[in-house]
Design goal:
With 147 residues, this protein is of the alpha+beta class. It is built from 2 helices and 8 strands; from the N terminus they run H-E-E-E-E-E-E-E-H-E. Helices cover 20% and strands 36% of the residues.
Length: 147
Amino acid sequence: MAIRQLRYVGDPILRKKSREVTEINDRIKILLDDMLETMYKNDGVGLAAPQVGILKRVVVIDIGEGPIKLINPEIISMEGEVIDVEGCLSVPGETGEVKRPSKVKVKYLDENGKELIIQGTGLLARALCHEIDHLNGILFIDKVIKK
């Protein structure tokens, strides 16, 4: 595993839409492991591939309950709304209040290509939405309602 170089606000790659993963190969599995290591090294709870310069629909999350690796994640349902403070490894030193759903259901592939569904509430719901936004070129600062 290796620590990848983080990309920061202003880097054009963060504003691009990521491509779907069509084949889960060793390169994708290495990317997932490297992203986890990079996220932990930087004390994050989530990381999307564009944040390390890769335009692939790949996300890792760990809200303290163990790592989750998601390939081609897609929100299939949302409920409620919660306003809470967010930050981002790609926007160091900045936080803001963002409105997110209180509950989400996300369909994704695991690293073995198995289709799974994860339901998230609280911090997990927020992290899922935040990281999936990254895959679409959206940063939390685009959604801040109050600094």
